[in-house]
Amino acid sequence: MVQNDFYLAVFDLVRLIPNGKVTSYGAIARCLGSPQAARMVGYAMNAAHQHDPEIPAHRVVNRMGMLSGKNHFAHITLMQELLEHEGHTIVQDQIQNFDLVFWNPQSIVA
DNA sequence: CGGGTGACTCGAC
DNA sequence: CGTCGAGCCACCC
């Protein structure tokens, strides 16, 4: 399986997420020029798990800041654990003050 | 080859 | 303001 540029771009972008910050699938997809490919971003994250460098997939959540992909981690609570370890507050699988910890991928382009 | 699914998002009621 | 449905793209069966 060969990762397309889209996948690589997603991996690279997620890897560039600053510590203590998070982003959304749609933001990544939009940054890549395919705002409708948000679903594919999540799918790419699945492949990211087997990628060589450790990709902070836990820093990627849906647009509402909910840990929608926690079920795909080794443990459904691992994602929350990692996020909380970075200083985030999570209630009911939802990141509090998501707008404050949100990181815009466009920031690296600008 | 064809159909179904999903770590999403937006629009309409 | 809250909930429901449709759309989109790539991968798996």
How would you describe the overall organization of this protein?
It is a single chain. The chain has 110 residues and is mainly alpha-helical. It has one domain (5-109): Winged helix-like DNA-binding domain superfamily/Winged helix DNA-binding domain (Arc Repressor Mutant, subunit A, Orthogonal Bundle), CATH 1.10.10.10. It contains 6 helices and 4 strands, in the order H-E-H-H-E-H-E-E-H-H. The protein has helices spanning 5-15, 25-32, 38-48, 78-85, 98-101, 106-109, and strands at residues 23-24, 60-61, 90-91, 94-95. Helix 2 crosses helix 3. The longest helix is centred in the first third of the chain and has 11 residues, at 5-15. It is globular. The termini are far apart. The relative contact order is 0.20. The mean pLDDT is 91.
Ordered list of secondary-structure elements with their pairings:
Elements: H1 5-15, E1 23-24, H2 25-32, H3 38-48, E2 60-61, H4 78-85, E3 90-91, E4 94-95, H5 98-101, H6 106-109
Parallel strand pairs: 1-2
Antiparallel strand pairs: 3-4
The chain binds a DNA duplex (13 and 13 nucleotides) through residues 1, 4, 6, 24-26, 29, 34-46, 57, 60-63, 67-73, 79.
Structural class: mainly alpha
CATH superfamily: Winged helix-like DNA-binding domain superfamily/Winged helix DNA-binding domain
Unreliable stretches (pLDDT < 50, length at least 5) are: none
What is the CATH first-level class name? Answer: Mainly Alpha
- As a percent range, the share of helical residues equals 40-55%
What is the string of helix and strand elements? HEHHEHEEHH
Helix segment count?
6
Overall geometry comes to globular
Overall pLDDT confidence: 91
What is the strand arrangement across the widest sheet?
A: 1-2
Distance between the termini: 32 Å
CATH architecture tag: Orthogonal Bundle
Fraction of residues in β-strands: 5-15%
Count of spatially separate domains: 1
